[in-house]
Design a protein that fits this description.
Chain lengths: 233, 342
Amino acid sequence: MDPPFDRPTLTCLGESAWLVTWGHSIDRETFARIARFTQTLDADPPRGLVEYVPAFTTVGVYFDPETTGADAFAGDLERRIARSAALFPPPPREVRIPVCYEDPFAIDLAFVAQYHGRTRDDVVARHHRAEYFVHMIGFVPGFPYLGGLDTALATPRHASPRLRVPIGSVGIADHQTGIYPIDIPGGWRIIGRTPLRLFRPEEREPALLRPGDVVRFEPIPASEFHATCEYSA
Amino acid sequence: MNAHVVRAGLLTTVQDLGRTGNQRWGVPVGGAMDAASHRLANRLVGNGDRCATLECTGLGPVLVFERDALIALTGARPAVTAAHRAVPMDRPILLRAGVHLACGAPWFGFRTYVAVGGGIDVPPVLGSRSTYVPASFGGHEGRALRAGDALPVGPLSPLGASIRRLLDRSSNANPFEAPPWSAAHAETRGDRATIRLIRGPEWHRLTAGSTERITAEPFWIGPDSNRMGCRLLGPRLELVDRGELISQPVCPGTVQLPPGGSPILLTSDCATTGGYPRIGFVARVDLPRVGRLRLGASVRFQWISVEEARAETRRWEASFARWTCCYREKISGWRCATDDDE
């Protein structure tokens, strides 16, 4: 088992990256530490910084070994880690995501309802009433890992993943909910679909959602889905 | 000028050195699987390292250019012909307009790179021309090339223009012009490799037996390997504790160990985060070797310290820089020799 979290640690992640560990569990406090740290990196990028990748409990920080030495860069990170504790993270953005929970989009809604012994309407109501929190973006471009799912809806993944989950699908996997930004194979239980494009490679900030965003789902009828769909479904 | 695709080949994509700064949005680094061969091809035609080339996996394409084109082929060794004459590798070639350049299936190696003087000038997406097929962006329309595609080619660099002038001295009766020497820098073996590994953050979770097995026995590149990663078959590795991690950053070169015990070596198009224990990282200098390995190729691992790995990278870069100097001297010396003839 990991020791209880005490202070951030730096671990070697190959020749040109450090892993900064900020906690051992997925929670808002760990998130806030990471947000303050990445805010410090944005405001005062250390020499040789290539990019950073925030995850649930860690941040991967990539550097250019031709510009900086590994130890010098680690020292620069340590100083920013110390400084970041004093910061206040920016207030969260609230993002509303319209979702159509109707057929043919709600591929696994009947299964989820049956699995928990609830009606389809109850599952939908519990899903859209909750407030979700974007812990990180990863897995595929623009994919948000959302915390805050009603525990009564936690459902295991498909034993073997579907070969193609359509773009925009909203799904459940254990205690998480997420949205598929592109057509890909996946094992999440799909209960609806959003007409929004979550990944926009033509934009400078290509993901619709950012870590730290507060997300609410708004149920929409199929007619509105078709009228507002941003991609060719 | 355009390059026209007459036949696409098995998997031909536009690639450069990949995109940085977008991993936080879940966007993979991408780029050439064999970056060393990509850079070599670019330097042979006077391009910068970041110009886009064509990465041809397995059976290569048939290409034809609207005007005379300065090209170079590196990496795997396919049979390449132009108007039924064998085209040599690892040197600048002036291919005449309208001549079909046909790349076959490699008999050595796995991925061939075709550089064109001026680079394949498709619009960059998120700072790179690399194709990322799973999310359909970058490269040419976000996909592998198809017959009938037309690819824009950028303007030659001054060095490219002088190489071209040197090659253009003979009459244009031949389908192509090439110097009598080759300028190889990269090795091209594709059937086996020794890959050096730096210990990963979860290395200590391997059992004692697995720590030994990982370097003692060879692995095979499994059939379901692709640009995202190579599945390594052979010895099964075990962890002292089962269980996945909370998703953490991973990058090309990361070796992950899923519960089945067969490691996955992540490559160019890998996800930005993953939940399997990271037992090691391929030394940077050895990563292009992975891109040269064909399915079924054998891989042996050796441990290397991160300091040694960094020193190896510096040595390789210094040697590549020396090679580039020699190449430029060769071009100018060749220019002098040709001038003397006149």
